[in-house]
Design brief:
Largest sheet: 15 strands, mixed
Structural class: alpha/beta
Pfam family, one: F-box
Protein name: F-box domain-containing protein
Oligomer: single chain
InterPro entries: F-box_dom, F-box_Sdz-33
Strand order of the largest sheet: 4-5-3-2-1-6-7-8-9-10-11-17-16-15-12
Distance between the termini: 78 Å
Organism: Caenorhabditis remanei
Strand content: 25-35%
Amino acid sequence: MEKPFPLFRLPRIVIEEVIRIMSPFEIINFAMTSLKSKTLIKSLLRNGRNSYAELQLNTYKESEISIIGFEVYFEFKVTSDKTKDGMREYKEYMETEKIYTLWIYSDNVLDEWMKVVKTVKEIFKFKKHLVRFEIDNFPTQNKSIVDFIKSLTPSIESCEFYGKAETDEDVEYFLNNLNVTEFVGFNLKLSDRFTFPQDNFLECFTIDPGNWVTLDQLLRFHGSEFCIHDSPLTNYELNLFLIFWMTSQCHQNLCFLLININDPQTLDIIFNLPHERINPDVERIGRLPNNDTIPLRGEIDIKRNDGMTGTIDFKWREDQMLLQMVVSRID
C-alpha cells in the first residue's frame, strides 16, 4: 500500500509552487479533503491567482459549477451516473474558448453540488455571478437552493429561468430573495397573473413566452434592452407604449426593443403617431446612449422629445412578426 504524499511537510515555497501549477479542479478537490487543506489553499492563493471573471451555477439534471476565466472554462458536473465519476473532457470552440469538464459522482446530486459551490466560493473570487435555474429538476428543494445561493451572495448579476412546470411560486421566491442587477431571462411559461417583483434597473430582459407581459408591466420594467416574444399586447397598446416613450413618460434609458406584433395587417394602428418613413437601402450612422456609433437601416423613425430617435424595422420569427427598435441620436 502506497503512503500518502507528505505535502504539509514540504517547505512553504515548495508548497506554493505545487499550488501554483494546480488547475481549479485540483485546487477544489484538494481543498475539500480537510479543513487544514482548505485553510492552506486560501492562505497561498493571492495576487489575483484566486480571481476569475464569472461563476455560473446551473441546476440541471447534471448540476454544474462553471469557473470562467479569460477564454477558459472549468466545469464541474455533479452526476448520479457512477460510470461518469472522474471522467474528463476537453473542448475548443472557434479556437477562442477552451472548456475543461470534470464529472463528480454522488448519490445525492444537489447536496454534493452545494458542497462544491460552497468550496468554490470560499476559495475563489468572482466579478460576476450567473444562475441558470431549472425549476423542474428539484421541485421540492427549489426554495432551499435559493436560500443556499443567498447565503453565499445576496446579489447576482444574471439569472435565467427554465422549466415546464408552469408554476410562478419558485420564480417569485427566487426574485424576491436574490437581487439581480444586470440580466434576467425567462425561458419558461408562467401564469398570466405573474408580476415581475423587482423594480431595480436591469441592462436586459429576455422573455419567451411573454404571455404575462401586459402594457402596465412593460411600462414598469426598468432596463435598456427588452426582447419579448408571444406577448398578448395589441397594436393599440404598442402604439400607446411608443407614444409614452416619445413623450419621455417611460423608458428614457431604453436602447433596444424587440417585441412581437399580433396583428401584422393593422400596422397603421401602431404608427398612428408622428413618424417618418425611411428608405431601408440607405445606411445612416446613429450614436448610441453610451456614445458608441452604429450603422442603421430602418423603415420608420420616431422622435423622442429630447432628440433621440427610435429606428424601427420588422423581422419574422417563424410565422410571428417582430418589431425591432434601436434608439440612437442621428445627426
